Amino acid sequence: MFRKNSLAALCVLVFCAQAVLAQDSSVLCVQCNNEGVKTLVKGEFEQAIQKLEECCRLYPSYDLARENLALAYNNYAVS
Question: What is the pTM of this model?
Answer without folding.
Answer: 0.70
